[in-house]
Design goal:
The complex is a heterodimer of chains A (482) and B (96). Chain A is of the alpha/beta class. Chain A has one domain: Amidase signature (AS) domain (Amidase signature (AS) enzymes). In chain A, 39% of the residues lie in helices and 13% in strands. In chain A, strands 1-3-2-4-6-5-10-11-9-7-8 form an eleven-stranded mixed sheet, with helices on both faces. The radius of gyration of chain A is 21 Å and the shape is globular. Chain B is mainly alpha-helical. Chain B has a domain of 45 residues. Chain B has a two-stranded antiparallel sheet with strand order 1-2. In chain B, strand 1 and strand 2 form a beta hairpin. Classes of the chains: A alpha/beta (482), B mainly alpha (96). At the A-B interface, helix 10, helix 11, helix 12 and helix 13 of A face helix 1 and helix 2 of B.
């Protein structure tokens, strides 16, 4: 009943009495339990149907939430052993708003530990696997949320995006992933990773559904001083307004960086889309960009995020929450707790963050990375004066699974095709990934990024792209014209 | 090259320990990090930019009114702690 259906379709079914919300919930549970042993997208599958009636389009519709959003009375682990038994005593604003809208939470999804990673392999409950090919990664960190939507278990799910953690897994799993402008959605109750880069993001199988959920979640929140005032209109109501004279650009050096035959095929599909958009009246121009700056995107992201993460996670001591190890002194308790509580990759990132923040290294490392962030944002802000959006391939196809110790290891190569999405986090830009076909049987994505606060424009152009590709409401295992 | 001893010092300051092989992986990562930092340093005019700690200028920053909106009561604040005594989190004795 629920599998693969859009929010509009489910709304109609509930409203005309063909199905009840509880039946949809039970259907989602059944699908979740069926795929859990093979794909492992959930930390917790919620067996109790709890529905607070709302008056929104989401009323009665099941969804899944990444396990780094606080949910009062429901286990919330951050997919880390250090929080494996943590039960929050308050709700995140995202969860509260969805509850008030009438949406029904059916599961908390697996992430890379504490949202630091891009593989979906480092959560404390084990690997999440790509539903299109279980020998491949789903991408992360919002791995389980991407899989839950891709498998058709729920029509939408919630993730968080600090470097590309919604938009990349969306591409690798063949769904739509959107992160609105920084501050558009409250981060209150979201476990912080790197606060100046953290965004709430949404997964769905079409742009209209993304806009419905964004409408519910957006707006100022007294609990998050960085939230933006609401514009006073619904994105979903303006999504289909005609757009004319839009100008997009893509970056020559990123497109030309494809080396492997698979990536060349990804680029070929991307250029096909560019040509189709041009035929549909959208201008798409090639822009050349200093390659050194593009190569600096990942190091800048890495340095800033490690530094902020080290500070943000210093409260994980085992005293106030989480499991506590034995020790003769408070220091010994803390050390033993953190030694067993964090996996290797997290520890490495914390050590790097700590080094970066040390007084004698701050100028050369941390402050210079922040200067480079400023420079990159200035350059893109200039381009957004001339263009309505940046269009790029979201990356290549999902890589094969490697041991989790190897995942997210710092790489000696500058993989600019794989790492450019962090631009959207540096400038807080609205950014959306959409399906753009298949290569070697695996889904690939195209990404659109627009100027800060131009969320509606971003969704409108994305809707047009979706119309041009004809790729919407895809579920893995469903029929697809690849 | 950064020494393993120095990395152990950082881990110790962060209140955790790592395996020997993990320190070696970390040392390799530092080598890559240093190389990447040189790349950032080589960007022309980088020194002319101020460090950016927020995505954009917040033109409508606000302070909420000075009223109590949400606070945790003692029961909730202690709910996740493994060892409590009366209204406090209990830890091993600092002074024997």
């Amino acid at each position: 009943m629920i599998s693969g259906k859009s929010i509009d379709e489910l709304r109609s079914l509930i409203d005309n009495g063909s199905v009840s919300s509880e039946e949809l919930f039970n259907d989602a549970l059944k699908l979740a339990n069926e795929c859990q042993s093979e794909l492992n997208p959930f930390v917790t599958i919620i067996n109790n149907y709890e529905h607070t009636s709302g008056k929104s389009i989401l009323d009665g519709i099941p969804y899944a939430l990444k396990d780094n959003f606080s949910t009062k009375g429901i286990l919330t682990t951050g997919s880390s052993n250090i929080l494996k038994d943590y039960v929050p005593v308050f709700d995140s604003t995202v969860y509260r708003k969805l509850k008030e809208s009438g949406a029904v939470l059916m599961g908390k999804t697996v992430l890379d530990e504490l949202a630091m990673g891009g593989s979906g392999l480092t959560g404390h409950t084990g690997y999440v696997k790509n539903p299109w090919d279980t020998t491949r990664i789903p991408g992360g960190s919002s791995a389980g949320s991407a899989v839950a939507v891709s498998k058709g278990i729920v029509p939408f799910s919630i993730g968080s995006d600090t470097g590309d953690s919604v938009r990349k897994p969306a591409a690798l799993c063949g769904v739509v992933g959107f992160k609105p402008t920084y501050g558009r959605i409250s981060r209150f109750g979201l476990f912080p990773f790197a606060s100046s880069l953290d965004h709430v993001g949404i997964f769905a199988r079409n742009v209209k559904d993304i806009s419905y959920v964004t409408d519910i979640l957006k707006g100022r929140d007294e609990m998050d001083m960085t939230t933006l005032p609401d514009e006073g209109f619904l994105y979903s109501s303006k999504l289909d307004e005609p757009i004319k004279g839009k100008k997009l650009f893509y970056i020559k050096e990123i497109v030309e960086s494809a080396v492997t035959s698979t990536n060349k095929e990804v680029i070929s599909k991307f250029m096909d889309l560019v040509n189709k958009l041009r035929s549909n009246g959208i201008t798409v121009e090639e822009v050349s960009f200093d390659k050194r700056i593009l190569e600096a995107i990942f190091p800048v992201y890495f340095i800033i995020s490690c530094a902020e993460a080290t500070s943000n996670n210093s409260n994980l001591t085992g005293f106030i929450f989480g499991p506590r190890s034995e020790g003769r002194t408070p220091e010994e308790v803390m050390k033993n707790t953190r030694t067993v509580g964090f996996q290797e990759m997290i520890k490495r990132r914390f050590v790097i963050g700590s080094y970066i923040l040390e007084r004698e290294n701050q100028e050369k490392l941390f402050l210079n990375a922040m200067r480079a962030r400023h420079l990159i944002v200035d350059k893109f802000n200039d381009l957004f004066l001339k263009y309505d959006g940046l269009l790029l391939p979201a990356g290549g196809i999902a890589p094969k699974i490697v041991p989790e110790k190897e995942a997210d290891k710092l790489n000696n190569e500058y993989l600019i095709l794989e790492n450019h999405l962090a631009i959207g986090n540096f400038g807080g830009y609205p950014s959306i990934t959409l399906p753009n076909g298949f290569v070697s049987g695996m889904p690939i994505g195209v990404n659109l990024t627009c100027a800060a606060k131009k969320d509606l424009e971003c969704l409108q152009i994305a809707s047009k792209i979706e119309e041009v590709t004809g790729l919407k409401n895809i579920t893995s295992g469903g029929e697809v014209d690849a | 090259m950064i020494s393993i001893e120095k990395l152990k010092k950082y881990a110790n300051n962060l209140e955790f320990d790592m395996k020997e092989s993990e320190y070696e992986t970390l040392r390799d990562e530092f080598e890559i990090l240093f190389k990447q930092m040189e790349l950032i340093d080589s960007i022309p005019d980088i020194e002319k930019y101020s460090p950016m700690s927020f995505p954009f200028k917040l033109e409508d920053a606000y302070l909420r009114s000075d009223e109590v909106t949400m606070s945790l009561d003692k029961k909730d604040a202690l709910a996740n702690s493994k060892d409590t005594l009366n209204d406090s989190v209990k830890v091993p004795k600092v002074v024997e």
